[in-house]
């Protein structure tokens, strides 16, 4: 192999930078997209990393007139299980909520019509609760969350680029601008390593250059944070079904212990979520292009065979200067436009609608209570109640009380958890202090819950005192539910933080913590494979001159 001079390397870098800056594909069939569900195939292998096998069969070529719904951008150096959980939250959680609620409703209805027997267990599922709605809802939720066949077209590098072929990888890297240009939105799965990775920053730059909006930034802790609430509630209701209520004091103690364990996780993840957002905002505010890391620079621009490597940094530096005029202008856009986008999305992502979604196990429990009362009245040998009332009014009190918990009390407590997570986001000096702080928040919110539940009987008394004699308890519970819903809406719309405070210096992860533990060779352009990149056939390209170089 003939030696390559620095001038020839520089010439190739300029030619490649010129082509990438045009945001055109090297060839039409290089553009591919995959269904979002394929990212979770084989236990989410495409999100966990390259295992030596090509995953290209999950994607299909697209025409230049087709659009990619979402371009998924993430760093391979952060916790990958968090990325998986956030993808589940983003793509499958809504479908899981709808299907699990429908399954819960149908199971409750079948049980009420006496087509299903009440579940048996330490707690007798008869007049109190049927059990089918909670168990069926949780099972359906988990199955749908992990297996929903989302068909929207996405770009994910391991799915749309053949990782077993160096030539295909180089073509895809040269066409990265074209992928981004044909994408409707850019989803950034952010962790503390994202703004340190050169190719991640380049994807952000290319999208900002070619689009006016559609940028979505999701800290990878968001998935564990919000799914933890749903699973904690579901596990809570399932575990208490195994605790017998014959000894009421023991039952209450067991419920308290289970609740503290489950909701401790919720408080802990909320604190981590807000700390992650704070670090993200600071990273964006202090972003500097020269601090980014890439594989070629870390190995001294030498390939495993000892040959020279092109410098990704020089190539992408040239592209960004062509797009933004200067590196400082690009850094300014990252600090301002991207930072503002993050803060504006924070309020919408942590809204009342999201709280109702993650508290869906309360809806399943409400249906359990309602349909159990419906079944009791329907199968009661004494028909006098049926003769005087509409059968749909059976369990109406339980329905209103359940809705108060799901749509009012639950979101209000979640708002308090969010607020406390924001206020106390900074990690303590030791894990013991962190645990104690989390427990104090849990106990405090539990005390507020007990106090709120004592308010409902006051509504019953107030309704009775004004002379209403018809459905006093039901009217009181309805007004209580309405009050709590209004409080929750006011909390989420008026009292959530709109700006995230800047983190202290000692809370920021340093550059020394960003380790190159994964092979980034797919991020580097190796001169030995340039002959396979057919950019010389592109019209208007100066590549033929460079492609004739002997490497």
Secondary structure layout plus pairing:
Blueprint: H1 6-21, E1 32-35, H2 41-48, E2 60-61, E3 68-74, H3 80-91, H4 93-112, H5 132-147, E4 153-155, H6 157-160, H7 166-174, H8 176-181, E5 183-190, H9 198-210, E6 215-219, H10 222-240, H11 248-285, H12 295-298, H13 312-324, H14 327-349, H15 352-358, H16 360-378, H17 384-388, H18 396-423, H19 431-453, H20 456-465, H21 472-494, H22 543-547
Parallel strand pairs: 3-4, 3-5, 5-6
Antiparallel strand pairs: 1-2, 1-4
Helix pairs in contact: 1-13, 3-10, 4-5, 4-16, 5-16, 9-13, 10-11, 10-16, 11-14, 11-18, 11-19, 16-18, 18-19, 18-21, 20-21
Descriptive overview:
The protein is mainly α. Helices cover 58% and strands 5% of the residues. It has 22 helices and 6 strands. A 6-stranded mixed sheet has the order 2-1-4-3-5-6. The longest helix is centred in the middle third of the chain and has 38 residues. It is elongated, with a radius of gyration of 28 Å.
Keywords:
551 residues; mainly alpha; six-stranded mixed beta sheet; 6 strands; disordered C terminus
């Amino acid at each position: 192999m003939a030696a390559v001079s620095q001038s020839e390397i520089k010439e190739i870098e300029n030619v490649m930078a010129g082509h990438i800056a045009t945001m055109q594909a090297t060839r039409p069939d290089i553009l591919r997209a995959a269904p979002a569900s394929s990212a979770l195939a084989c236990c989410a292998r495409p999100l966990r990393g390259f295992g030596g096998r090509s995953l290209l069969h999950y994607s299909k070529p697209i025409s230049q007139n087709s659009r990619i719904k979402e371009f998924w951008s993430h760093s391979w150096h952060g916790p990958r299980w968090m990325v998986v959980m956030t993808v589940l939250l983003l793509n499958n959680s809504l479908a899981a909520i709808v299907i699990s609620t429908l399954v819960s409703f149908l199971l409750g209805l079948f049980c009420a019509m006496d087509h299903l027997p009440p579940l048996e267990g330490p707690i007798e599922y008869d007049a109190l609760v049927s059990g089918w709605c909670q168990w069926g809802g949780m099972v359906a939720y988990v199955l749908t969350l992990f297996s929903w066949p989302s068909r929207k077209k996405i770009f994910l590098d391991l799915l749309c680029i053949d990782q077993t072929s160096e030539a295909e990888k180089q073509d895809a890297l040269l066409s990265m601008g074209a992928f981004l240009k044909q994408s409707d939105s850019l989803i950034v799965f952010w962790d503390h390593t994202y703004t340190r990775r050169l190719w991640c920053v380049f994807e952000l730059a290319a999208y900002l250059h070619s689009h006016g909006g559609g940028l979505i930034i999701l800290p990878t802790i968001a998935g564990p944070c919000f799914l933890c609430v749903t699973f904690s509630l579901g596990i809570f209701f399932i575990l208490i079904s195994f605790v017998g209520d014959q000894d009421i004091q023991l039952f209450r103690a067991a419920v308290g212990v289970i609740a503290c364990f489950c909701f401790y996780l919720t408080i802990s993840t909320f604190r981590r979520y807000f700390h992650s957002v704070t670090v993200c905002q600071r990273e964006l505010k202090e972003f500097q292009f020269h601090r980014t890391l890439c594989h070629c620079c870390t190995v001294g621009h030498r390939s495993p065979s000892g040959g020279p490597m092109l410098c990704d940094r020089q190539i992408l530096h040239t592209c960004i200067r062509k797009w933004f005029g200067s590196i400082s202008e690009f850094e300014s856009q990252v600090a301002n436009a991207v930072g503002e986008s993050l803060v504006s999305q924070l309020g919408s992502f942590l809204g009342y609608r999201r709280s109702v979604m993650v508290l869906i196990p309360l809806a399943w429990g409400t249906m359990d209570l309602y349909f159990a009362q419906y079944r009791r009245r329907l199968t009661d040998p004494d028909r006098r109640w049926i003769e005087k009332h509409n059968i749909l009014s059976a369990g109406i009190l339980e329905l209103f009380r359940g809705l108060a918990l799901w749509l009012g009390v639950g979101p209000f407590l979640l708002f308090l958890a969010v607020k406390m997570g924001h206020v106390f986001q900074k990690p303590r000096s030791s894990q013991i202090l962190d645990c104690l702080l989390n427990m104090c928040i849990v106990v405090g919110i539990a005390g507020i819950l007990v106090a709120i539940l004592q308010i409902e009987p006051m509504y019953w008394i107030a309704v009775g005192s004004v002379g209403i004699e018809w459905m006093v308890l039901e009217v009181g519970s309805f007004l209580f539910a309405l009050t709590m819903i209004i409080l929750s809406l006011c909390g989420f719309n008026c009292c959530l933080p709109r700006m995230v405070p800047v983190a202290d210096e000692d809370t920021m992860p340093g550059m020394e913590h960003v380790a190159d533990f994964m092979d980034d060779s797919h991020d580097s352009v190796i001169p030995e494979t340039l002959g396979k990149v057919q950019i010389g056939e592109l019209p208007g390209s100066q590549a033929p001159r460079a492609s004739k170089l002997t490497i």
